[in-house]
Each structure stands twice: as C-alpha cells, then as structure tokens.
Design a protein that fits this description.
alpha+beta; single chain; 36% helix; 3-stranded antiparallel β-sheet; Beta-lactamase; globular; 8-stranded antiparallel β-sheet
C-alpha cells in the first residue's frame, strides 16, 4: 500500500505582489481505458474520496432494482448522490424518500449541522432557526442507505457498520472501481465509512459514470446531470460545473479539497486534490485544469464565473492580492 501522496504546488497566492500561501496537491486526467493522459503531482497516490464517493455508495441500490422497487424518481436518486445545501427543495425530496420506505428522520444517523446554504451564500440563518438531520448535506445518501436496508430486509440499526452487509456492498463497489483491495478506510463527517483510492482511479470512475458505461451508471449520471441543483445547491460549485457542461459533465466535490469531473464527449475523467482542503484554491485549480485541457475558455459571463477567484479582495472591496495556478497540463487534442 502506498504512503501519503507526493503532492506538488498547485496554487499560489500573493499579497502586494509578494508570495504568501502555497497550496499543494495533485491532478489526474485519464481516458476511457483508465490510462493517464495528463497529470501533475502524484496522479496515482491514494486520497480519501469524501463526498465524491457518493455515486458508488448509491450504486448497489440502483443495481439491485431499488428505483423500481420503491418507485423512486431521478430527483430522489440525485439526492442520494448529493452534498446538498439544506434548502427547502432538498428537504422535500428527502422527506418523500423516507415516507416511501416507511422511515423517518429519527432513523437517520448522519447527525445535524446548519445548512451549508448559509455558508455558500454568505447569509445568516433566521433568528431562532432550528435544524434536524434532514438539513445535513448527506441526508439523501443516508435515506438511500435506509432504502437499501428496507429492500433487503435488513434492520436500520447499524446500517453504517463497516462490517454490516450494506457497507460491505459499498466497499466491494469501491474496490472494483479502484482496482485495488485493502484500501484505507476512515469515517466521514456523516459517520459513513469512506475510502481512499488512487486519484487516477477516482478520475476513471467519473469517466465511466459520465459515459454511462452500465445501465446503473447511466441512471446515476442522468439523475445528477438532470438535477444539478439537487446534487448541490445555490452558489455551489457542482451546480455551476454541471450547468456549464450542459449534460455532458458529471461533477462531484468532496470535502477537504476533492473535485471529480467526468466529460462524456471527450471520454475523460478528471480528479483534483488540494491537500490542505482550501476551497478557493480548489476552485482556481479546477478552472485552470479545465482551461488547460481545452474544455473552457474565459469563465467570464458563464455559470463558472463565481468560481474564478483569482483576485483577493478585502472587506472594503479593495483588490489586495492574487491567486494563481502554478501547474501546467498538456492541452488535449
């Protein structure tokens, strides 16, 4: 098993023209066969996938006929793959999922946090606002976990147990797509098991997802690209990326600096990791990678414009510094 990835500088910041911060990381770009066609840093190094794993965590439910079994629609499947903002549209779909399987918010084991909508829109929750597990960005994934258990006659209790039947099924899917066994496991922020896989394997996973390589992957890609607002939310990067892609791009961010994108028309998958988890650096690295690969020109005036955070502005709106990529990828033919 490999040690920690050997990351390289991906993004640098300056203030007053003087270097201030360096964000290291790695990028892997692979073709439909999984061959590396571009990369910087440790393109094959192991990285925790965090929420970029969600399509694989939903794969077993889809493969076993769960959609037809419960009459789930594409909105519900999108929520199973979502890191949602806790907006009313997200809560409504999760509630429908729970009602359809005869479960309730109390059966969830994801915990509770204030909706990320407020963080991403720079707004404050209303005075006296109270939140439940439904507001957790992973509540749709967990509702999908409960649906899998209900379909297979498994108890809800312990559905997050790494050695339970559901999570063993998830691990098998991850190992199959990673092409490796004995992957490092950790517990995610929502208490579900999560796995580190080679960055190139994560890129290949999203290449296969975007291509709809199997009926199950095609269903997942359709749900995500048809409902990017449910997968993500207001002012969120995945919403912007998939809207710009116009159904051609499947995108999923993961906590602490992970971004995966599959581009169906080009037959490629892209995986980016910023090692310190800095979100601004991840946005700049993502746009730079897309530009260098010939997938994006100037983001100005496009849905991706809010991610173009190359100018550091202080609280008075005065430009005080810059954020610049420090890597070079070959432009693909």
């Amino acid at each position: 098993m490999n040690n920690a990835p050997e990351h390289v500088p991906l993004v640098r910041t300056t203030r007053g023209g003087f270097p201030e911060c360096v964000h290291t990381g790695s990028i892997a770009v692979v073709d439909a066969k999984g061959a590396l066609v571009a990369g910087v840093g440790d393109a094959h190094g192991l990285n925790f996938t965090r929420s970029a794993l969600k399509p694989l965590q939903a794969l077993g439910f889809v493969a076993d006929g769960g959609m037809a079994h419960f009459g789930f629609d594409s909105q519900m499947l999108a929520l199973m793959c979502a890191s949602h903002g806790g907006e009313a549209m997200h809560l409504a779909v999760v509630q429908r999922m729970l009602e359809r399987i005869g479960a309730s918010e109390r059966d969830l084991r994801c915990g509770c946090h204030p909706p990320s909508y407020y963080t991403h829109t720079s707004t404050c929750p209303p005075p006296g606002a109270r939140f439940s597990q439904l507001h957790h960005n992973c509540s749709g994934k967990h509702a999908g976990f409960l649906a899998y258990c209900r379909m297979h006659g498994q108890p809800f209790a312990g559905y997050l147990d790494p050695d339970g039947p559901l999570q063993r099924r998830v691990r098998a899917s991850v190992e199959r797509f990673a092409g490796e066994r004995d992957l490092p496991m950790g517990i995610d922020g929502c208490s579900a098991p999560n796995y580190a896989m080679p960055l190139s394997a994560l890129a290949h996973t999203f290449c296969r997802l975007a291509a709809g390589e199997t009926p199950e992957l095609a269903a997942l890609a359709y749900a995500m690209t048809r409902h990017p607002d449910l997968v993500s939310g207001t002012s969120r990067s995945d919403l912007m990326l998939m809207r710009f892609g116009g159904g051609d791009w499947v995108s999923k961010v993961g906590a602490d600096g992970v971004q995966a994108i599959g581009v169906r028309s080009r037959g490629i998958g892209i995986a980016i990791r910023v090692a310190d988890g800095n979100r601004r650096a991840l946005h700049v690295a993502t746009l730079a990678a897309l530009q260098q690969l010939g997938l994006l020109d100037d983001p100005t005036g496009t849905p991706l414009a809010p991610l173009d955070e190359r100018v550091i502005v202080n609280y008075r709106g005065i430009p005080v510094g810059a954020v610049e990529p420090s890597f070079t990828l070959p432009r693909l033919a």
